[in-house]
Amino acid sequence: MRVLASPMICGAMRIEGKYEGPRIVIFAGEHGDEPCGAYAIEKLFYDFSMGARELLKGTLTLVRANEVALAENKRYVVHNLNRLYKDTNAESTDMSSYEYLRAQELKPLLRECNYFLTLHSAPIADEPFLVVEERHVEAFRPMGIRKFVTGWGAFDVLGGDSEGYANTYGAVACTLEAGNHTDMTGISVAYSAVLSMLTHWGMIADELPQSSGRPEIFRIYEVIIKREPFSWMGSARRNFDFIRRGEFVCMNGKEYLQTEEDAYLLMPSPAEKQRVGEEIGYLARKL
Ligand SMILES: [Zn+2]
Predict the structure, then answer these.
(1) What is the pLDDT of residues 85-134, one digit of tens each?
(2) Distance CA 96, CA 79 (A)
(3) CA 34 to centroid of ligand 1, rounded, Å
């Protein structure tokens, strides 16, 4: 087993197993105000580099993605990094910005891996959940996460995320939302989730996959894009809130959003956290 710091990509570390095997890439801290994943991959890196764990086969590449935003504890510096993994970007993208340049540096890793995981957290989330395309649900069941969100890839407005880019180039990819931004139990959630998958892939020997029943699966059918003025309606909005048909969800740009069917509200952000034109929540059906 060899442990390498990439001389080409700042903040990237690679562990190589003795034998040929799957190429795994894990990003953490694509949003700099979501530190749990970064702590989790640092713990993993120390495990391997100190000899507490051994990688039996394949390669494991761990990346602190938005290093500048992580240092400043903010979501991003100029652009949302997790919307810039594209082959052609919008004209409004500042191509001299840190995030644009960082995305160009990281994209080759996404094109060349077999499996990709990106570790995030959400502003309001009582429990962890996995964002994954429906065709990859089975692949990530051994992770032991109980709620899966699908359908993300169907919306152009959400394009440019690392998971979607890796999927486009043939990887099996997912996004783990390990819990709340401020809840540090997200570190152990992310750490255990990665260990479960490495065990499942036969890359480490000493961890048992978490036992899990079938996850609950929610498919996004509407993205709420923030306009001004904006306010959530009803009781304090939580992630996976059940919303009965006909209930008002929010006031968005002076229009009221009312559900036409029983639905679930996913990943609601506090109004002040998102800019106009950014997504602020999602409506989903339970499958
Ligand atoms: Zn995030």
Answers:
(1) 999 888 889 999 999 999 999 999 999 999 999 999 988 777 999 999 99
(2) 11
(3) 6
Tell me the CA–centroid distance for residue 2 and ligand 1, in Å: 30
For residue 46, the surrounding DSSP H or E stretch is: helix 36-49
List the domain range (segments joined by +) for residue 229: 219-286
Total domains in the fold of the chain: 2
Instruction: Quote the Cα angle for 250-29-166, to 5°.
Output: 90
**Domain C-terminal end among 135, 170, 200:** 200
Ligand 1 center–CA 123 separation, angstroms: 9
Q: What is the spatial distance between Cα 179 and Cα 177, in angstroms, rounded to a whole number?
A: 6
- Give domain status of residue 95, yes or no: yes
Asked whether residue 59 is domain-assigned, the answer is yes
The rounded Å distance from CA 122 to ligand 1 centre is 6
- Cα(88) to centroid(ligand 1), Å: 22
Q: How far is the CA of 18 from the centre of ligand 1 (A)?
A: 33
Cα of 200 from ligand 1 centre, angstroms: 25
Domain boundary among 200, 228, 254: 200
Using a cut of 0.90, tell me whether the model's pTM lies above it: yes
